[in-house]
Specification:
- The longest helix has 14 residues, at about 110-125.
- Helix 1 links the parallel strand 1 (about 1-5) and strand 2 (about 30).
- This protein is α/β, with parallel strands linked by helices and about 240 residues long.
- The radius of gyration is 17 Å and the shape is globular.
- Strands 2-1-3-4-7-8 form a six-stranded parallel beta sheet, sandwiched between helices. Strands 5-6 form a two-stranded antiparallel ribbon.
- It contains ten helices and eight strands.
- The protein has a single domain, classed as 3-Layer(aba) Sandwich (Rossmann fold), CATH 3.40.50.
Length: about 240
């Protein structure tokens, strides 16, 4: 049995994987989708502890594939560093990632950092980053836009300012980075610098919403499980 621990990115929730999860289940895999949307002020290290708790819930000896989307690329690397023996493969989906001491604000371009800080200062009481519109994630379909807009939540600013704490154990875990095209940020270069295999996938940043089947196929390929679902868009 293989368990996929699917970790959502900033402003999202476990629901972000709702179109991918049934496809993984159809091929016999189990899934866990930890929720990083903690109430109150919290940071990246708090999110890493949430993911670590999910890793601890997977039975010993079961194959475990840890997947992080976007901001969660930093989170899952810190969690894997804490539990390297539990994780068989680490997968980043358009994921921010770097060595010890990396952070969202350290990796992102200056214009991004300035815009985020200004948004938090003017509309988030200096603690929260208001959710951007769905188009910022590449979602343009009218139905998907309305669906996503009603679910996005503010993001704690400290999740973007805190730097990862890595002892180096995560570097012993095999890693793959799936980067979406056309690219928004150099996610492939982040991964290459870490020695990860990189795979291109045509689709926007929120590819799990717009193109769940191609993404699910790549995730299943991580452990060679036969793909059994039909070629159609998964439904929430």
């Amino acid at each position: 049995m293989t368990t996929y621990v699917l970790v959502h990115g900033a402003w999202h929730g476990p629901w972000a994987w709702g179109r991918v999860v049934p496809l993984l289940h159809a091929s016999g895999a189990r899934t866990l989708t930890p929720d990083l949307g903690a109430s109150g002020d919290h940071g990246l290290h708090d999110d890493a502890r949430t993911v670590t708790a999910a890793l601890d819930a997977v039975p010993a000896g079961e194959e475990l594939i840890l997947v992080g989307h976007s901001y969660a690329g930093l989170v899952v690397r810190e969690a894997a560093d804490l539990r390297p023996g539990a994780v068989d493969h680490l997968v980043l989906v358009d994921g921010w990632a770097g060595p010890d001491g990396a952070s969202m604000f350290g990796l992102a371009p200056d214009a991004f950092v300035t815009a985020i800080r200004d948004a938090a200062a003017t509309s988030g009481d200096g603690l929260w980053i208001p959710a951007p519109p769905p188009a910022a994630f590449g979602v343009v379909d009218a139905d998907d836009t309305a669906w996503l807009a009603g679910r996005l939540v503010p993001q704690a600013l400290r999740t973007f300012t805190e730097a990862t704490r890595l002892d180096g154990a995560v570097d012993r875990v095999p890693g793959t980075a799936i980067h979406c095209r056309p690219a928004t940020y150099p996610f492939d270069r982040f991964a290459t610098a870490l020695g990860y295999r990189t795979l291109a996938l045509h689709g926007p940043h929120d590819v799990m919403l717009t193109d769940p089947e191609p993404l699910a196929r790549l995730l299943l390929d991580m452990q060679g499980r036969p793909v059994r679902f039909e070629n159609r868009k998964g439904e929430v």
